Amino acid sequence: MSLLEIKNLHASVDGHEILKGIDLTINAGEVHSIMGPNGSGKSTLAQVLSRHETYTVTQGQVLYNGKDLLEMKPEEAACEGIFLAFQYPVEIPGIGNAYFLRSALNAIRKYKGEDEMDAMDFLPMFREKLKLLEMDDKLMSRSVNEGFSGGEKKRNEILQMAVLEPKLAILDETDSGLDIDALKIVAKGVNALRTPDRAMLVVTHYQRLLNYIVPDFVHVLVDGRIVRSGGKELALELEEKGYVFETEARQAMLA
Amino acid sequence: MISTTEQLQSHLENFSEFTKHAAGRDLGWLRKLREDAFARFCEVGFPTTRDEDWRFTNVAAIAKSVFHLATKSGATPEKSALADQRIIPDSSCRLVFVNGHFAAELSSMGKLPTGVEVNSLALQIQKDPAAVERHLGRYLNIQRDAFSALNTAFAEDGAYIHIARRTVLESPIHLLFVSNGISSAQSPLMMHPRNLIVAEAESEATIVEDYISLDDSVSFCNTATELIAGDGAIVSHYMLERENRQAFNISTLRMQQGRSANVASHSVLLGGGLVRNNVHPVLAGEGGECLINGLFAGTGEQHLDNYMLVEHASPHCGSRQFYNGILNDHAHGVFHGRIIVHKDAQKTDAKQTNRNLLLSDDARIDTKPQLEIYADDVKCTHGATIGQIDEVALFYLRSRGIDEASSRKLLLSAFAGECLDRMKQGAARSYVEKLIDESLSAFLLSSGNASNELLSKDRELSWEEVG
After folding, report:
1. Does A108 contact B401 at a Cβ distance shorter than 8 Å?
2. Binary contact (B414, A95; C-beta < 8 A)
3. Which residues contact B195 (CB under 8 A, 6 or more apart)?
4. Which residues are CB-neighbours of B302 under 8 A, at least 6 positions away?
5. Three-state secondary-structure class, residue B242
6. Does A8 touch chain B (CB under 8 A)?
7. Are B87 and B430 within 8 A, CB to CB?
8. Mutate to test the interface with A, among B398, B407, B440 (most CBs of A within 10 A)
9. How far is A84 from chain B (nearest CA, A)?
10. Cβ contact, residue pair A103, B393, below 8 Å
């Protein structure tokens, strides 16, 4: 059984169709990358999979671990092991980072019928993950993402992912706005989480990230549809020729 | 409902009965204080919404009801009735007042350090009337406020606290005011607790006024506190309103601050039906600092009105007002922030912020700044915001596995937490934190269906003025 099976997925927002029939299958252990120009629907796909309520699914099916993902609320999807690293991580004044993360971890553990983790057990594990992301633990006593730099926010997303240990991690333009050093740290964090039982969906506009997080498969999304799929070489080809090439190819195909 | 004449008649009956038995009825000065105040009350009567200070709060329900003045011989509950009330751990003492009267058998005086005197005002009037006379009624303005006049007319019992010079009281003094109407025959009870808190120069103390109901009966609690902070004194005052939804609660905190005195007033309004919270500090000595901090959280039909009157009467003083409101269902909140900077109060630094979350379409907030500046070298800023729960933050929390109700509570707690963060760490703050937490949990139970209406875009109203 595949971890994620997307069949003919159509989704719209405010009556405007953005995803126009996506088919994608992801198995455990695989890293897939979705590339595409701005406005092609990459982020929408990421948001639909993490169950954002703004988007209406008008057609199609998504099976996650054999279960109907589209029936799940965001928190259920998260408890079932889906994690979205946000393109724009949200600042939440008044809620401490560490407290938030422990609450999330315990919500997931509770869902799975596991014992909640107390602060004593949480802290050593948390410190280790902080080290992995080379993050200052001073940040953790601050409010969620509040006053964080762009790079710190992105690292914080991967930190959360490292703590919550999802089965399917969706990275939405995690590379955008990162300098090369920060990018390397983020990639190191992500790669440390690559295991045979975990899959990743890396959404990106640029090929750069894929030098550090090397995908098994690359898909090109244009105008709400996957127009091409291939191995990691495809990313390089796109980088060279640009999306225009794909867009034109698609238009030619339609014509 | 009764006519104005009948209203006054019922208060007059209460008053003439009161003057026959009241503690200190033989003291000329006290008799005069009460009589003058009652005369003043009869003269002005209860305010109406035509009165600018009462524009958003209609007290007709109080004015048109007949209340029976609660007496000491009334219902004193069993000790067990208070058993499930939280106590402040390590409080230095807990005074319990039942319907405004000191209940010694329910109170625990603890072990107070030398220099700290805590008593019931009625007992203190008998024990040392001169000490009471020095301050009682000297600060509370009965001319500008009918409720203050009414309270003063019936001033008899409440807390008397005296902290001697340079005495530091580390643990809080807990004053628990219990409304208990069970045995009241026909008409609902009214009570007028009067507290006198004197913190002499360079002393330190924390006082918690805590108002609760033991049953669902209607009551009218009109309380007033005069807090005198001597030069360099540091005082934290907490006003916690958690009475039942039938309760009328009018409270007035009048603070008089000496040179370099530092006073914090924290108001937390969680209960009550019709609540008016007056906070009136006068920064009378140079270099004084005043923090006026509050949280009001209303559901159902609650009406929670906060009226701040901050008077800068001396140079180099700072005042900070921060009030956060959370309103759901049909609740109505009011924040009126008035700052008066007197002519000589140069280098005044006054700031006022009121932030509100409206959780339903029918919840309402009226927020009104009012600056009167008669000095020319001052800094005064004010701002107000009105918004809803941040849907983006809500999705972020949920996407990490936290269910919707818990996520909402986290966001509300964070908003309420801004108020908690301004309280000094300690027993009083932990106590308040637990009360707020319990209240917000109950809050969400009543608001489950409001969530869909929250998707509308944040409305933000903000203004800032520097002058």
Report:
1. yes
2. yes
3. B121, B158, B159, B160, B161, B175, B209, B223, B224, B225, B226
4. B245, B272, B273, B275, B331, B332
5. strand
6. no
7. no
8. B398
9. 7
10. no
| Cα dihedral B164→B170→B174→B175 (10° resolution) | 20
A206 vs B286 pLDDT, higher one: B286
Q: Which of B402, B415, B417 has the CB atom closest to A107's CB atom? A: B402
Record: contact A89-B393, CB cut-off 8 A:
no
pLDDT tens by residue, B304-358: 999 999 999 999 999 999 999 999 999 999 999 999 999 999 999 999 999 999 9
Q: Reply yes or no on whether the pLDDT at A249 is more than 80.
A: no
Interface of A with B in 153-212 (CB under 8 A): 160, 164
Closest Cα of chain B to A108: distance in Å? Answer: 6
> Mind listing the pLDDT tens digit for each residue in A192-212?
999 999 999 999 988 889 999
- The C-alpha angle B461, B466, B467, rounded to 5 degrees, equals 135
Of A50, A94, A105, the CB nearest to B399: A50
**Inter-chain CB proximity A92 and B414 less than 8 Å:** yes
Please compute the mean of the pLDDT values over residues A57-79 and round it to a whole number: 97
Whether the pLDDT of residue B213 is over 70: the answer is yes
Q: Any chain B CB within 8 A of the CB of A104?
A: yes
End-to-end CA distance of chain B: 47
Query: Is A92 within 8 Å of B418 when comparing Cβ atoms?
Result: no
Helix pair angle (A180-192, A119-132), 10° resolution: 130
**Cα–Cα dist A154/A143, whole Å:** 15
Question: Are B305 and B278 within 8 A, CB to CB?
Answer: no
pLDDT band at B8 (very low <50, low <70, confident <90, very high): confident
For the segment B369-408, what is each residue's pLDDT rounded down to a tens digit? 999 999 999 999 999 999 999 999 999 999 999 999 999 9
Phi, psi at residue B348, to the nearest 5°? -70, 140
Q: Does A147 touch chain B (CB under 8 A)?
A: no
Residues 6+ apart with CB under 8 A from A45: A9, A11, A19, A22, A34, A203, A221
- String of DSSP letters for B138-150: SSS-TTT-HHHHH
The residue whose two tokens read 């019931």 is B120
Q: Is A90 within 8 Å of chain B by CB?
A: yes
Say if the Cβ atoms of A73 and B404 lie within 8 Å: yes
Rounded Cα distance between B211 and B424, Å, is: 21
Query: Could you identify the residue written with the tokens 């006003």?
Result: B239
pLDDT in tens, B44-54: 999 999 999 99
Question: pLDDT of A144-181, one tens digit each?
Answer: 999 999 989 999 999 999 999 999 999 999 988 889 99
Which of B396, B440, B133 lies closest to A88 in space, CA to CA? B396
**pLDDT score of B448 more than 50:** no
**Confidence bin at A247 (pLDDT 50/70/90):** low
* Nearest residue of chain B to residue A101 (CA atoms): B400
* pLDDT of A81 higher than 60: yes
Chain B closest-CA separation from residue A47 CA (Å):
10
Alpha carbon of A225 to those of A21, A23, A221, B362, B455: distances in Å? 6, 8, 5, 44, 29
Answer for the pair B185, B155: CB distance below 8 angstroms, yes or no: no
Q: Where are the domains of chain B?
A: 4-455
* Model pLDDT, residue A254: 64
Give the model's pLDDT for residue B189: 92
Give the per-residue pLDDT at B182. 64
Q: Which domains does chain A have, with CATH numbers?
A: 4-254 (3.40.50.300)
CA distance B124 to B139: 19
Pick from A86, A94, A101: CB nearest B414: A94
The span from the first CA to the last CA of chain A, in angstroms, equals: 37
